[in-house]
Amino acid sequence: MTARTCTDIRSAHYRFYDDALYKSTFYLLTFTYLLTYLLTYLQLIYFRTWLATVPSTLSGLNASLFVRDAKTKRLRVNYDPRIREMLHEAEQLMKLNLDIGSLALNLCMDEDRLKTTNDKSALNSSSSAAQMRSTS
Hints:
The chain has helices at residues 6-58, 81-95, 102-109, 111-135; strands spanning 66-68, 75-77.
């Protein structure tokens, strides 16, 4: 039986260290790959769900523009806040070069008209309410 020298012990230590480093690198790369795959899959599910909700959100554009408030009996603008949210999301998805569909694309093209119509309607309803109060 031969005695172990310091170099033998040192080389065994380095071999163990290299093996542990190899294994940890392998596990880290595998985890990163799986996490990337999972996030991509979840993004795809989110995007498909978003595409499915576009028609129901845009149905809010078919509602009447002004509605009388039940409590105060004043006119208010009937503008669905989800439309503004959908506009923002569609812009961000277009920046990612995703196909957002024709409905959302048409909505994005009409964005300026929708915003100015909403702002003018809100201004007109508040000024008409002020006129109604001043005449009473």
